[in-house]
């Protein structure tokens, strides 16, 4: 209770001293950071107050009501995944270097994890970093990096020692996306737009102070980022969900008995998914979500696909058409409006939801191994030096 | 202490008790017992543990705890597969009385329920079964100052051991509620052979049986319907407990059962089935807990929450129990293995208090679909 009062008091103070109507966006976010209201569960001095993460909701609701700018919206990956990783694994100098610019919008973040040859088997990545004095020289290719064209910092995981087993030879860096040798190429997807990118890294020089965690500790650091990512995919959003849209369409259009059954079932699944999210948030005691975060990710992805299928069925013959296949690159504007996209576009986009951030198959394996404690599947690659694992 | 800590303490206490007093051997012994429950366990539950009176109002001899606490108890009973008239007495009869708007009937029966002296149940469906107002054809006849009932009620849980039957029948005014107190003249109760031997259901034949009106003539259905929804919430909690137990049982088995030189739980085909079971059970738990909260808080959407919970928890328990049999292989199909007991309980619970299809239809009506 005392913590709730502390948080509410700070919010009121912030709004009184920096009225959103007359304060510039960046100044307001700066003041919010200083007040410990950026991530309330972070330590004091680093944008937080060291209180329970659930209390962030109080902040978000009150600030939205007061018309304050939203620091998270256009920098989702940095806000939800980057910052917790830096708090968990960065040293004090790194925390002071990265958190404030991230929150006030000076630096946008993207993720450089997947590679053409390392999707579900992320630890099989081959992008290399070699030590060179106070720097590291990075060579390789990353893929599925959303927002890379408009980002300043890349969360990068690379191989620094190929003679160790695959999970042990990895290291985590925060890459300056403007550094020479970083080339970002938009990757067109089945919706027609280029939401993701390929990132080619050629002799990119990364200073050692941009390394997060010890050399060889990259897998553990990356796990923090990935756990946060799974929760991110399941977070409550402001925009109308596909289940709500399906219900509106259902009430407006002609429909048959089969569609009634599907509509009710979807509505129930949507309600239960929201209840799951609320319960998981209430049970989250410390900062970093556990493997049970995979439940929400899995349920949300499959629910959205089914809901959008019903939406298109309810649209009828209109679903034979499409709004535009013009290749559109991702911008800050398009990012803000992604929730309003055409239903047919969202339907196509939803096919990615059971793939991105860990496929549904990988989610099920994580739940089985890490939550239920089932024995792992025997595998030939885990203990071999990475350089001796057959690839191709 | 926070309310969730208090609930966990209660859960531990009830689980410890049931692990001692409702072992698989006890369950099987009671499946063959004509009464179908252990009177001594019932007495300890009412006395030492105070479970019967837990959620009843203090004015009627109860302890005045909330419905969420009561649902923790149901979850543990489902886990232990406890054969008991607890669901019939507490979830059905006590709720029907509380919703009847008849203080005299509450005063007469609830303290005896709280103390464990009285086993009671609701008699609703007839030859064709069913759990809504269309299931009732029986007519009550005025008889001097009272009434008599004639006809047949079926699928009545715990009727063979109950000393109070709350019977729904028509009067000229509409659906009404009556109390019949067996053993009574013109009232015979026959236990039918049930798919689920842990929950006996009876055929009740009434032949000019004397009955006392509870509440007002023709005004019963609103209260009975609400009580049925509250009972469905308790049953949903019971289903979550049963589903959780079969998941644990199956995970344990998948860790030790070896085929092809490795534990079967290391095969992805097995892992993913169990992961799906986990996801479904966690979702069912969210739905059940939300419905219990809705009852406790008097949420205006409580009936919707109850129907969501009953639909989701029914499907989840049945699928979980079926998967448990599948993953146990041949041993899971044997009489000796407990998987079949949970499967039969799951399948029967699906029907009791309304099928998932019935509750989905109610959800549809309530959201305008």
Automatic annotation (TrEMBL), chain A:
Keyword annotations: FAD, Flavoprotein, Oxidoreductase
Cofactor: FAD
Domain Acyl-CoA oxidase/dehydrogenase middle: 110-204
Acyl-CoA dehydrogenase/oxidase C-terminal domain location: 216-372
Pfam families: Acyl-CoA_dh_1, Acyl-CoA_dh_M, Acyl-CoA_dh_N
Transmembrane region(s): none
Domain Acyl-CoA dehydrogenase/oxidase N-terminal: 25-105
Region (Disordered): 373-392
Matching InterPro entries: Acyl-CoA_Oxase/DH_mid-dom, Acyl-CoA_Oxase/DH_mid-dom_sf, AcylCo_DH-like_C, AcylCo_DH/oxidase_C, AcylCoA_DH/ox_N, AcylCoA_DH/ox_N_sf, AcylCoA_DH/oxidase_NM_dom_sf, Mycobact_Acyl-CoA_DH
Family: Belongs to the acyl-CoA dehydrogenase family.
Protein name: Acyl-CoA dehydrogenase family protein
Organism ancestry: Bacteria, Bacillati, Actinomycetota, Actinomycetes, Pseudonocardiales
TrEMBL record, chain B:
Residues of the Acyl-CoA dehydrogenase/oxidase N-terminal domain: 5-117
Cofactors that this protein relies on: FAD
The keyword Oxidoreductase is assigned to this record: yes
UniProt entry keywords in alphabetical sequence: FAD, Flavoprotein, Oxidoreductase
Pfam families tied to this protein: Acyl-CoA_dh_1, Acyl-CoA_dh_M, Acyl-CoA_dh_N
SUPFAM superfamilies found in the cross-reference section: Acyl-CoA dehydrogenase C-terminal domain-like, Acyl-CoA dehydrogenase NM domain-like
Matching InterPro entries: Acyl-CoA_Oxase/DH_mid-dom (IPR006091), Acyl-CoA_Oxase/DH_mid-dom_sf (IPR046373), AcylCo_DH-like_C (IPR036250), AcylCo_DH/oxidase_C (IPR009075), AcylCoA_DH/ox_N (IPR013786), AcylCoA_DH/ox_N_sf (IPR037069), AcylCoA_DH/oxidase_NM_dom_sf (IPR009100)
Acyl-CoA dehydrogenase/oxidase C-terminal domain span: 221-367
Ranges for domain Acyl-CoA oxidase/dehydrogenase middle: 122-190
Family recorded in the similarity comment: Belongs to the acyl-CoA dehydrogenase family.
Name used for this protein in its record: Acyl-CoA dehydrogenase family protein
């Amino acid at each position: 209770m005392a913590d709730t009062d502390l948080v509410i008091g700070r919010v009121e103070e912030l709004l009184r001293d920096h009225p959103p109507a007359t304060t510039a966006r960046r100044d307001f976010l700066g003041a919010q950071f200083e007040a410990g209201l950026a991530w309330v569960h972070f330590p004091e001095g680093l944008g937080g107050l060291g209180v329970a993460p659930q209390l962030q909701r109080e902040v978000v609701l009150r600030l939205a009501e007061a018309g304050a700018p939203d620091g998270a919206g256009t920098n989702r990956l940095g806000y939800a995944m980057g910052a917790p990783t830096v708090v968990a694994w960065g040293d004090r100098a790194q925390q002071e270097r990265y958190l404030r610019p991230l929150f006030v919008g000076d630096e946008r973040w993207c993720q450089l994890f997947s590679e053409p040859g390392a999707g579900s088997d992320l630890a099989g990545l081959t992008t290399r970093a070699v030590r060179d004095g106070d720097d590291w020289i990075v060579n390789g290719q990353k893929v599925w990096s959303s927002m890379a064209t408009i980002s300043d910092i890349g969360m990068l995981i690379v191989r620094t020692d190929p003679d160790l087993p695959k999970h042990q030879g990895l290291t985590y860096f925060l890459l300056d996306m403007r550094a020479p040798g970083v080339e970002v190429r938009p990757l067109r997807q089945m919706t027609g737009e280029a939401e993701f990118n390929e990132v080619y890294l050629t002799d990119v020089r990364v200073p050692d102070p941009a390394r997060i965690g010890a050399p060889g500790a990259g897998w553990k650091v990356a796990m923090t980022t990935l756990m946060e990512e799974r929760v991110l995919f399941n977070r409550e959003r402001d925009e109308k969900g596909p289940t709500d849209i399906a219900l509106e369409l259902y009430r407006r259009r002609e429909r048959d008995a089969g569609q009634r059954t599907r509509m009710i079932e979807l509505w129930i699944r949507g309600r239960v998914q929201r209840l799951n999210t609320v319960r998981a948030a209430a049970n989250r005691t410390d900062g970093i979500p556990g493997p049970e975060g995979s439940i929400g990710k899995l349920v949300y992805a499959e629910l959205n696909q089914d809901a959008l299928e019903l939406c298109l069925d309810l649209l009828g013959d209109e679903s034979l058409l499409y709004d535009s296949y013009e290749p559109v690159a991702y911008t800050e504007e398009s990012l803000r409006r992604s929730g309003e996209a055409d239903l047919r576009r969202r339907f196509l986009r939803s096919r990615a939801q059971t793939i991105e951030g860990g496929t549904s198959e990988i989610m099920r394996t994580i739940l089985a191994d890490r939550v239920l404690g089932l024995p792992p599947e025997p595998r030939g690659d885990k203990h071999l030096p990475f350089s001796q694992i057959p690839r191709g | 202490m926070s309310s969730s800590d208090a609930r966990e303490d209660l859960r531990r206490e009830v689980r410890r008790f049931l692990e001692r007093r409702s072992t698989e051997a006890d369950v099987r012994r009671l499946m063959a017992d004509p009464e179908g429950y252990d009177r001594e366990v019932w007495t300890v539950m009412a006395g030492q543990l105070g479970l019967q009176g837990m959620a009843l109002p203090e004015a009627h001899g109860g302890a005045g705890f909330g419905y969420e606490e009561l649902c923790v108890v149901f979850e543990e009973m489902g886990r232990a597969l406890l054969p008991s008239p607890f669901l019939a007495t507490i979830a059905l009869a006590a709720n029907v009385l509380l919703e009847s708007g008849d203080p005299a009937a509450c005063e007469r029966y609830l303290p005896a329920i709280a103390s464990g002296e009285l086993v009671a149940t609701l008699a609703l469906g007839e030859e064709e079964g069913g759990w809504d107002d269309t299931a009732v054809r029986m007519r009550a006849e005025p008889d001097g100052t009272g009434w008599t009932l004639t006809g047949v009620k079926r699928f009545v849980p715990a009727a063979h051991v109950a000393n109070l039957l709350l019977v729904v029948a028509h009067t000229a005014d509409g659906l009404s509620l009556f109390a019949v107190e067996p053993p009574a003249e013109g009232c015979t109760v026959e236990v039918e052979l049930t798919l689920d031997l842990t929950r006996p259901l009876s055929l009740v034949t009434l032949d000019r049986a004397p009955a006392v009106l509870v509440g007002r003539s023709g005004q019963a259905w609103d209260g009975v319907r609400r009580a049925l929804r509250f009972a469905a919430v308790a049953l949903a909690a019971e289903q979550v407990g049963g589903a959780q137990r079969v998941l644990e049982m199956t995970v344990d088995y998948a860790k030790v059962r070896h085929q092809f030189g490795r534990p079967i739980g290391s095969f992805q085909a097995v892992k993913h089935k169990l992961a799906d079971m986990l996801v479904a059970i966690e979702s069912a738990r969210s739905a059940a807990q939300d419905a219990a909260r809705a009852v406790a808080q008097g949420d205006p959407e409580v009936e919707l929450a109850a129907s969501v919970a009953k639909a989701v928890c029914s499907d989840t328990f049945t699928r979980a129990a079926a998967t448990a049999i599948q993953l146990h292989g041949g041993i899971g199909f044997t009489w000796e293995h407990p998987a079949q007991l949970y499967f039969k309980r799951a399948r029967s619970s699906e029907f009791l208090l309304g099928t998932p299809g019935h509750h989905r239809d109610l959800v549809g009506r309530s959201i305008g679909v």
